[in-house]
Design brief:
Methylamine Dehydrogenase, Chain H; single chain; mainly beta; four-stranded antiparallel sheet; 12 strands
Length: about 190
């Protein structure tokens, strides 16, 4: 008796589910996320409010940094100093200065100026610290940067894969990066 009753309940639930099946389609949440030729993206909670924010790099259009406020994305790149218009090939968040907030490394296509840019995050404001960090790499097309503590000294070092030159490994020495791939036999 219980088995028959359970079978009837299950059949009723399945019939109801089948009858109420609705077609759906995805719609863009915010159209400006798809504008232009997007080449890269990276997410992190740069403002420390508990939700992921989104950096989007473009091919020759200003980069965007979308602050996520409970599902509302607002482009703040110009406000925080990171709306660079170069062809941005790659980006990676990492706390290179160990101050508790994510910093952003951006890699560009080969062209005028350095192909790496390091933005230090200080209370959700960004400062370009590329020159003083030793990352003024003048040649190469960046494929992918990756933060890694390869030497186990509790600070993030940096590996950069290039498309058209030897890859690089930079040891972080108190915020100053020293290229060491060749000394380790990696280049």
């Amino acid at each position: 008796m219980i088995a028959k009753r359970s079978a009837l309940i299950v059949m009723g639930v399945l019939a109801t589910a089948a009858a109420s099946r609705q077609e759906f389609a995805f719609e863009p949440y915010q159209a400006d996320l798809a504008a232009g030729a997007t080449l890269s993206n990276a997410s992190a909670d740069f403002d420390g409010d508990g939700d992921l924010d989104l950096f989007v790099g473009f091919n020759g259009a200003p980069n965007r940094l979308f602050r996520n406020d409970k599902g509302n994305l607002k482009d703040v790149a110009a406000d925080v100093g990171m709306a660079d218009g170069r062809a941005t090939r790659a980006a990676a968040w990492g706390d290179f200065d160990a101050d508790g907030d994510p910093d952003l490394l951006v890699g560009f296509a080969a062209g005028a100026g350095p192909v790496l840019r390091l933005y230090r995050n200080h209370q959700a404001r960004f400062e370009d610290v590329t020159a003083r960090s030793g990352l003024t790499v003048g040649t190469g097309a960046v494929r992918q940067p990756a933060w890694i503590d390869f030497d186990g000294d509790d600070d993030l070092d940096l590996f950069v894969a290039f498309r058209d030159r030897v890859n690089a490994l930079y040891r972080n020495d108190a915020g100053a990066f020293i290229e060491i791939a060749s000394s380790l036999g990696l280049a």
